[in-house]
Amino acid sequence: MTSTHPSLIERLHAVVGDAGLVLDAERQAAYLTDWPRKWTGRTPVVVRPNSTEETAAVMRLCHQTRTPVVPQGGNTGMTGAGIPDMDGAQIIVSMNRMNRILEVDATSNTMTVEAGVILASVQQAAADANRFFPLSLGAEGSCTIGGNLATNAGGISVLRYGNARDLALGVEVVLADGRVWDGLRALRKDNSGYDLRNLFIGSEGTLGVITRAVLKLFPAQHGRATAWVGLRSHKEAVALLSLTQSICGDRIIAFEMMSEFGMSMILRHVADTQRPLSGVHPYYVLIELADAQQELPGTLLEEALAAALEAGLADDAVLAVNDRQRQQFWKIREGVSQAQLREGHPLKHDIALPIARLVSFIDEANALIAASFPQLPVLNFGHIGDGNLHYNVLLPHGLADDERERLTAEVNLCIHDLAIAYRGSISAEHGVGRLRRDELRRYKSAVEKDLMRSIKATLDPDQLLNPGKVL
Amino acid sequence: MTSTHPSLIERLHAVVGDAGLVLDAERQAAYLTDWPRKWTGRTPVVVRPNSTEETAAVMRLCHQTRTPVVPQGGNTGMTGAGIPDMDGAQIIVSMNRMNRILEVDATSNTMTVEAGVILASVQQAAADANRFFPLSLGAEGSCTIGGNLATNAGGISVLRYGNARDLALGVEVVLADGRVWDGLRALRKDNSGYDLRNLFIGSEGTLGVITRAVLKLFPAQHGRATAWVGLRSHKEAVALLSLTQSICGDRIIAFEMMSEFGMSMILRHVADTQRPLSGVHPYYVLIELADAQQELPGTLLEEALAAALEAGLADDAVLAVNDRQRQQFWKIREGVSQAQLREGHPLKHDIALPIARLVSFIDEANALIAASFPQLPVLNFGHIGDGNLHYNVLLPHGLADDERERLTAEVNLCIHDLAIAYRGSISAEHGVGRLRRDELRRYKSAVEKDLMRSIKATLDPDQLLNPGKVL
Q1: Burial of B462 (0-12, 13-18, 19+ CB in 10 A)
Q2: ipTM score for this prediction
Q3: CATH classification of B223-337, choosing from 3.40.50.12780, 3.30.70.330, 3.30.70.2190, 3.40.50.720?
Q4: A424 CB near a chain B CB, below 8 Å?
Q5: Nearest CA to CA, how far is B351 from chain A (Å)?
Q6: Range(s) for CATH 3.30.70.2190 in chain A?
Q7: Within a 13 Å sphere around the CA of A438, how many CA atoms are in the beta-carbon half?
Q8: How does pLDDT run across B314-323, given as a tens digit for each residue?
Q9: Which residues form the FAD-binding PCMH-type domain (chains A, B) (predicted)?
C-alpha cells in the first residue's frame, strides 16, 4: 500500500468537516465497488465536498501533496472509471453532497445544477416547470448529472436530443491544481474562444472535476406514442428506421432493436413480462415518438406502421394504447441487462457504426462468432437509430477464470477489430475507463493518442486526476 | 516586409503545381481583403491545395521553414480571421479547390464533404437526396463549410438545430506540423477518448486546418410556415417566444426580432421591400416553423398567433400565404446588413445572453447609450430565440478617423462591459479573429486564458497557425 501524505486527512477534515469524510471501511464499501461489481479498489479516504469552494480546496491539497484523485458521481459507470485501484493511495472525491438544483429558468429553458444531483431529479424538476429534460438511461434513479457529463452519457433519446454533451450549455470545473474554470454559461451561442466545455465533458474525470452545470430544457412533450414491431431480420429494422423518419420527421425519440433470442431470454428471467405481439418474430423494434402536440405522435406512428406493413418491412405491429402498455414495452427493452446476467456471463460490446453499415456488420460479426466460437450465443440489441449496437456474446456460467479471460480477450478482439474495420467505435456510450484503456491504445491512431496525451499533460501535468483511466 | 524562406515557393509549387499557387498581385487581391472590407493584408503566396495530402505537405513545408499560415475558406468572415497581417510573411492556405461532395448517405443521414464546398451546395445536395441540412446564413452562397466549422457559424436555425459544431459528426484536420488527425467519423455516439472534434471546430484556424467533414442530415421538412408579427416592445417579443414554444414545441426554427427603426431603414434602402402589416409597430418578430408534415406548421403557428393576439402579446400578425411572401419577410430580415451600411457606420455587437435577461439588457443598454451617446441611434435586432442580439450602434458617415476610432472604442466598452455583467458573450456567432482579440483578453478570466494558451502551445508550439487571431 502506497502511503498517503501524513497530514492530508487532517487538512482535508479542516476543509470538509466530519460530514465530508468517510474513513471507516464499512461506509467506504459502497464507494469502492462499481455497479456491475467488476472492479474493487482501496482508498485512504472518501472526501465529500459540499461546494465548489470546498472541491477546489480539496484539489489544492491533493495537488500540494501529490495525492491522486478519483472523482465519483453515482457510481453507476460501466467501465470502472469511478473506482480507485488497489494500491490504496488514490482518494475518492465524491460529489454526492453537491446535490442542489440551483435554478430552473423556464424562460431561458435552462436549469442550473450541482454535479451530484440525481438524473431523475433533474427530469422531475424540468417536468415540474412544464419543461422536458431528455437524458434518460437505465441508471437514472441513481446516476448523477455530473457523472453523466463526465462520461458523456447516451441512453434512449440520443436520436432526437443528442448525448449528454449536447444537453449542457455550460459547466464549472475544478482543475487538477485546484483552480476553478467558470464555464457556467447559460448561452446557446458563444464563439468567444476555444470550446473548453466539450473537452471536459466526456473526459471521465481525467482533466478536471465537474462541479456545476447549466442544462438545456425543451418544451414539454405532451404527446407520446410507442409501438412494438415484429420483423423478419435486422435488415428490415434499418429500412424501417428510414421509412419512419421519412413519415414522422425527427420526432422519433427512440428506435430500439432486439432479437427473438433476447426476447425469449427476458420472458424467462424478468417477472411480469409478456409478448406484445401474439406471434414470434426473428427481430423486434420498439419505436417511440414524442411531440408537444398530444394527438400527433399516435397519428403519425400509425401512418408509418401501416406503410411498413404495406411495404413488407414489418410483419406485425402494435401501438401502446395507454401508459401502462407503454411501460410494458419498455420493461422488455430494459429487462435485457438483468436477463443476460441470469443466462450467462455477458461479454458486452458497445459498438457505434454508421447506420448504413449496421446490417453488414451484424452479418459479418455473426459469421465470425459462429466460425470461431460456435458454442457462444449472441445477444444483439441496441439503439439502432443512433447506430449503437450492444453486440453481446454470452459465456456460460461456471467457466474457470483463465478460460473466461481467454475467451473474453479473443471475442473482444474479434468484435472490436471488425468494428474498427467498419470505421466504427468500440465505445459508443459507455466510455473508456479501465475497461477499454488497453484496447484504446490498440485502435487509436498514433496522432490521436499523441493529441490526447499532450492535452492530458497540459491540464494535469502531475497525472493526479483519475490515473489509470482512459489513457 | 518579413522575408519568406528562399526556396519555399519553389517547394510549394512542387506540391500543388501551377493551379495551386496564386502569385500575382491582381489575382491575390480577392484573398487579401475581407468581405466587410475592414482588413487588408499582404502575402507572398496564396496556396490552394487540392487534397488532404497536399494540405499536409504544404503544412509540413511551412513547419520546416517556420512560415506562418492563414487558413482561408470563402473569405466571408466578420472578424478578419482569414486575412493575413501587413508584414507579408504569412502565406494563405485557401481551401477553395477542395470543393467536392464525397458522399451523401441517406440511410445514415450523413454527408461527407471537403472543406471548400460552398454552404449552399451542401444544402442543395441534401435537398436532392430528400434530406435537410439546416445551417443557413446570409453568406451561404459564398461561404465554405470548412469556414463555417472553423468559426462555428450560427445563422438562422440555431434555435432548433444548433450551431455548426452540432451539425458535424466528424472532421479531418491537418495539424501545424503537417500530421493529419483522422477524425472523419460518421458516428452519432463515440465515447472513445477526448472530444478533439469540438476543440478544432470554432478555433478559427489557430489549432489546425479542417480539410474534410462528415455532416449530419435531417429528414426533409416538407411543411413550413412563416409569420410576421407586430409588437409593442421587445418585452412582448421574449414573452411571445415562450408562448410559441409552448404551443409549437421545438419545431420553431427561427425567431427573429427587429425594431421599427430597423424596419424603416430597410424600407428606405432595400429595393422591393414593403411592410408585411398595414400598421406601424415599435417591434416586429419573424417566426418560422418547419416540420416533416406539410400542414402542421401552418396550423400550429396560426394557433400560437391567435393565442398571442388574445393574450395581448401581439398587436397584429400575418402568416405568409405562399413562398413568395415568405421570401419577402426574409428579405426584410436579411436587408438589415445592407441598410445599416447606407444609413451610417454600424458598430456591430454580436451579444449572446440568457434569454430571460434579454429584456433588461436592452433596457439598460438603451439607457446607457442614450446617456453617454445621445446622438447615436441604436439598431437592435437578432436571433432572439437563441439569446443572440445584434445590438448595433450607428455612427454617422464622414467622421474623422480618430473620432470614429474613439467612439468605436467607447461604445464597444460600454456594450461589452454590460454584456459581461449579464454573464453574456461578446461574440455569439461571429468569432474572435482580429476584431475581438484585445477585448477577449479584457473579459476572459485568467484561468480561461491560461487554458486556451496552453492548448494553443501544445498543438501549435511554434505559433504558425493563424498568428494574431483569437489569442
Answers
A1: middle
A2: 0.96
A3: 3.30.70.2190
A4: yes
A5: 9
A6: 223-337
A7: 4
A8: 999 999 999 9
A9: 39-220
